[in-house]
Amino acid sequence: MSLTHQKPPRSGDTAQAGALSPAAQRLATAASTSTGLILAKIAMIGIVDATAIFALFTAIGREAWAIAAVVAVITLVINVVYFKRGWLPAKYLLPGTIFLLIFQVFVIGYTGYIAFTNYGSGHNSDKDDAVTALLQSNQSRVPDSPGFPVTVLDDGGKLSLLVERDGVQLAGTAEQPLEPITADELAGFTQLSFADLLGRQQEVTTLAVPMSDDPSQGSLRTSDGRTAYQYTSNLVYDEAAGTMTDSTTSVVYRDTGVGAFTAPDGTQLMPGWSINVGFENFSKAFNDSSIRTALGSVTVWTFAFALLSVATTFFLGLFLALVFNDLRMKGRRIYRVISILPYAFPAFLGGLVWAGMLNKDFGFVNQVIFGGAPIPWLTDPWLAKFSVLWVNLWLGFPYMFLVCTGALQSIPDELAEAAKIDGAKPLQVFRLIKLPLLLVSVAPLLISSFAFNFNNFNVIYMLTEGGPRLEGAGLNVGSTDILISMVYKVAFVGSQRDYGLASAFSIIIFVLVSIIAVISFKQTKALEELN
């Protein structure tokens, strides 16, 4: 018996080696998948790290050290968690935790911080920025100042002034003071022609280029694009004394700790700067008579709106659920589909549609249903409130109808049959058996519905914008405004925006909703124990 030495088959030679075994194929597939996952993970982490590095340098460049530290810590945690073997739960929990911290915890904490400041219109920066803005405003031409021949340059739509002083060419923009410029740098700009100067006259005449980093030296301005003159502010800042003096009136404005330079008669120079004011915003909300009156009126209407919205939608939804759950009714499926159609309609769009239908002059309701009668559905305080409740009923009853239908169908039929055998009438069966069991299931949803309507911004703002205006109010609020729409108006509507006061209102809303939720859930627990 002789032994013959054979060479192993070459890879890919299927004629001699045959196909890979199933086990080998599984190993090859697993190895390929593992390699792909590793490459995908490296690519993902690379994108995150690149974005973090960009954000880190941006934050450091603006001296935002807290943001830079947070970005660095988050990036380090991401790299450690995803490159370390194991820690599988952390890999799933980390993204959600980061987004929770950024979009929930940070937002709540920052809102709480703003509530204790005067941050808002005229107080949205620090003191140095406010001083610079004041010195750059109210400027007038320096008497007998010489004219500087200038050239107006364009760099991607951004205007600059080119001036020669002491044999050196200087260029600057509205944000960048005059600085020496080389011929190579100058080649990237485009000189405005006479036609361009005429076409952009408004931009040219309003362009003010700072002479230097010191705002007290003023700026250069031109009215014709050919000659510029030096302009300086009428205000003189004394950093040591903390005063700002108006050179034309000799009035001295002092830093009295209110976030603005204030004259002896109480007049303030704007813009001011943001400072910590303690509980002043909360005190203003309850002690200022005009704000207190508006806040009280809005709070009462908010509770009324939330309670009536929940009650009307619940009872209408329950009534329809009872009717459509009766086996004797024909076409129940068609009626159910029709009933839930408003639920599929976006709330903000529904508000806009109903606003047009309820228009006093050309709305469908007045023109078609009431024969052209000019009924002020949205401009009369009480009719506007009725309209808001009606539209919210139209939008909200399908949800309650679905909830009540499911709860009723979960109640065993044997209970109702046993009650009927004992002589109970249909109304007694509903009141003593079905309703208590239904409330056990529906009560938590009623509480959440109350909390939702308590902050139901869409219907209020899209239908009436909170109007009509509430007379005598010290705030920009209306008769149909609820607390959340009032906060929106205080913070974002109008020329005077008070973010600090709006944040204080937000905290008040949070406290109210929390108290209501705690009390309501205690009552729900008691209801469950009774059943």
From TrEMBL:
Record keyword Protease present: no
Keyword Secreted in record: no
Cellular compartment(s): Cell membrane
Family annotation (InterPro entries): MalF_N, MetI-like, MetI-like_sf, TM_PBP2_N
Protein's membrane topology: Multi-pass membrane protein
Bilayer-crossing regions: 36-58, 64-83, 92-116, 300-322, 334-357, 388-411, 432-452, 499-521
Cross-referenced Pfam families: BPD_transp_1 (PF00528), TM_PBP2_N (PF16296)
Domain ABC transmembrane type-1: 299-520
Keywords assigned: Cell membrane, Membrane, Sugar transport, Transmembrane, Transmembrane helix, Transport
PROSITE patterns: ABC_TM1 (PS50928)
Family affiliation: Belongs to the binding-protein-dependent transport system permease family. MalFG subfamily.
Role summary: Part of the ABC transporter complex MalEFGK involved in maltose/maltodextrin import. Probably responsible for the translocation of the substrate across the membrane.
Designated name of the protein: Maltose/maltodextrin transport system permease protein
Phylogenetic lineage: Bacteria, Bacillati, Actinomycetota, Actinomycetes, Micrococcales
